[in-house]
Amino acid sequence: MENIKRFCATIVLIYFFAGLQSQATEDIALPLDPAVLSGVLDNGMTYYVRSNSEPKERASFYMIQNVGAILEEDHQNGLAHYLEHMAFNGTKHFPGKGILNTLEKHGVAFGYNINAYTSQDQTVYNLSDVPTNVPGLIDTCLLVLNDWSNYLLLTGEEIEAERGVISEEWRTRRNADFRMYRASLPYVYNHSKYASRDVIGDLEVIQNFEHDALREFYQKWYRTDLQAIAVVGDFNAEEVEQKVIELFSKIPAVENPEERYSVLIPDNEEMIFGLVTDEEATQSEITIYMREYNPDQATDDINDLREDYIINLFNRMVSLRISELLQKGEPPFVRGSIARTSLKRNYDLTYFSVTAKTNEEALALSTILEEAERIKRHGFAPGELERAKLYSLNRMENRVKEKDKISNDRYAYKYQSHYLQGNTYMDIETEFQLMQQLFPTITTDDIEKRIPAWFELKNMVMVISGPESEDVKHLSEAEARAILEASTEKEVEPYEDVEVATSLINEPLAAGKITSEKKIDELDAIEWTLSNGAKVVYRFADYEKDNIGIRAYSKGGSSLYADELIPSLDMLATLVPFYGVADYDRVSLQKMLTGKTVSLNVELGSLSEGMRGSASPKDFETLMQLVYLNFTDPRFDDEAHQAIIGRYIAFIQNMNKNPQKIISDTLSMVMTNYHPRTRTMDEEYIEEVDLDIIEKVYKERFKDASDFTFFIVGNIQKDELQPFVEQYLASLPGNMGSENWVDHNMDEPEGKLLKEVKLDLQVPKSTVILAFMNETEYTPENMVYMDILQGILDLRFIESIREEEGGTYGVMANTSLAHYPDSKGSLLIMFDTDPQKASYLKELIYKELDQIAERGPLQKDLEKTALNMVKDRQENREHNAYWMNALQTYYIHGYNSDAATNFENIVKEATVEDIREFMKEFYVGANIIDMVFSPQEETESE
């Protein structure tokens, strides 16, 4: 059967490409991926089924509802999202928490593998990475989708129980960015219904709606003609298709269904101007929207696809231009973009967006408008277009080579796009062939002739958002209009596209040698010692066919330098990429690397330094050249340095009122007992960042390769790798020296520290943070127990704090076990809540921890956590990154993390008593930081 399908697909493609060549100007329908089994049932439901083995023995199940917040009546504002929550709170075949309880027994975790989202136009549910080797589990998941379609219970008890969770989600989301977004909607959507539907909804409605209002929304809109299911995984697709048809055909269609309407946004001849401010805002943003009605947004024929390519190429070229502008001199703004995209259903959009420096909105706006005028009047240089094409072709080629690693969820997203927007889903090889045929037909003229329509002033909206402060002055509408008008009259020179070199290294290098080789049988790897003293640890791995990763590691890091250098040390790894390398500044380097899949970043941690990079096998030599040059010929560009520092200063100028930054800074200080090496990022900090110090430290850290270990994992054979290693790594300077890190004793305060911090907040919210630290031996067993503890706490807090109490949208629990400079375990717990509930919920957290330390976890929680950990481990082993981490763990921490005795056996054999003993040893006597950030006084909710 499969051979017949492949033969038919091949015949279709032969005729398709023949038609493409002879009818390039006609609307030729794009071919659908023949591997997908799809159809529409008699009741109107659409389905998509596809076999796929990434990950192996896993499947993903999606329920796609063409229903979102835009369909709500005013008295239902927020109920589309509320209904999404209710889908996990009782269905016909899974009452109560039945869905979660059933799937978590198979390692399918809520919030990770079980999730959903609601937007203005759609609601999508997913069960991801479900094991397919468990008898009957595929049928169970299909039954869950079946219940989500038509059989939610929506009991009054469960509806009431969820009010608290939704209210706390509303509270958590109400930061400055969300409030300004919400306030901007009437301008952006010109007072249409989109302007009054922010998905999370009206708190008054959430807390007081009648139960029947939710049921009415469900009965009216959750129906088969507005639903699609997508099932993708490691199974027999034809068998699953039959299951789908048999089960879902039984769902009755709604008689005389109401039209699933679309919302229109009124046109505006004159520009709409809006100013939105907030006391907690940190940045001044100016965005210009140019909206265009387009009732046919679907990409389903060859001309649509070509138009998509033109837009993508345009966006890429503009992005690079603005990036280049920000590299030179004193940048006129912090961030900027010009792009063509979609706004909502039936609406396309061109937008200009710029983040201005404080009180420099006029400069930022005039500069981004000048760049737009440069594009409008002079277009693009041929070299810009060719580089954009190379970039896109290279990315697509990489995806084709990695087609075996396309995940179930990525496929499901394609089918979601097909169902909701009408976009064709193609086989990736066919898509690549189309790109190769269409790109040569796209010229700079194709792009330039579209720009006048894209930059059409009709339906223009300008929104300025930023801090509400006496120290910040925003543009008035009159000032903004004057700048806009002046931009069309200003003289603008064409962009000058400078040619760049084609090779990073043009002179032959004196190669070194591999002096010895040792096998690491337990990891199927080898270790080479090089003539300069460096070591290379290599493992072949072709899980990702188009990837080779490299990491360099050496002890020392910033710990070897004085406290007063901390700002320069902390920022070194962030800033160095902006300088370029050797004779090439960042812009030249980006142009030179266009069309290549290669990346490399330097790292300077507190205890080590190194590099981290990856490349396609065809570009691996380029990666090795970058490693060589970053060691031997780093670049320190003062102009680029001043440019990025200027942007950082502008970025942090108004951060002192941002509650999230205050919380983060306070936590950092308290957890290190106000150590002098702990610095918070403010203007003084940025002004202390010194290029000379960065250059000095960098050259000292990377002058000697002899104490570096290079880890290389990927799709390259040993014989192919060896000459690259000798040419570019063995030739690095080496003095046969070694260093170690210095322990600066950045420890937490001893005992229990209670601290309450009062904040000026627009929405009353308390943030509770509990941190526990204790000496814990670094062993494989303790590493696993720490992970088990985190999984158990996730389950407990969801059940007790979120579901039973309705006290928070979610509790974050994170465990870790550090090896250096001290073996120390950590547990960090954080959640937002109503200030009136903070103390009570905090005590419940302690109660949960006490119970685990005294009696151990619940057996069911341990089993669920263990199954999820083993399942994740099986999935991770099928990726190159897993083996890179295994090699590093082996060398840096001294044990084989891949061995079953160091993971699977520990997880499977762990008992309630084991976890109780571990928790008791860690928890009792731990140093504790107990912090609550609360509002200064009660404020209005909205």
Unreliable residue stretches: 1-12
* Proportion of residues in β-strands: 15-25%
> What is the number of helical segments per DSSP (H or I, 4+ residues)?
31
Provide the helix percentage.
40-55%
Q: Return Rg in Å.
A: 29 Å
Mean pLDDT, as a whole number?
Answer: 95
**What class, by secondary structure content?**
alpha+beta
Distance between the termini: 61 Å
Top-tier CATH class of the largest domain: Alpha Beta
Trace the largest sheet across and list its strands.
12-13-14-18-15-17-16
Largest sheet: 7 strands, mixed
Shape: globular
When the domains are counted, the total is 4
CATH topology of the largest domain: Cytochrome Bc1 Complex, Chain A, domain 1
Assigned CATH architecture of the largest domain = 2-Layer Sandwich
Q: Give the CATH H-level superfamily of the largest domain.
A: Metalloenzyme, LuxS/M16 peptidase-like
Give the total of beta strands: 23
Short summary of the structure?
By secondary structure, this protein is α+β, with helices and mostly antiparallel strands. It folds into four domains: 32-248, 2-Layer Sandwich (Cytochrome Bc1 Complex, Chain A, domain 1), CATH 3.30.830; 272-405 and 417-487, Metalloenzyme, LuxS/M16 peptidase-like (Cytochrome Bc1 Complex, Chain A, domain 1), CATH 3.30.830.10; 514-729, Metalloenzyme, LuxS/M16 peptidase-like (Cytochrome Bc1 Complex, Chain A, domain 1, 2-Layer Sandwich), CATH 3.30.830.10; 752-935, Cytochrome Bc1 Complex, Chain A, domain 1, CATH 3.30.830.10.
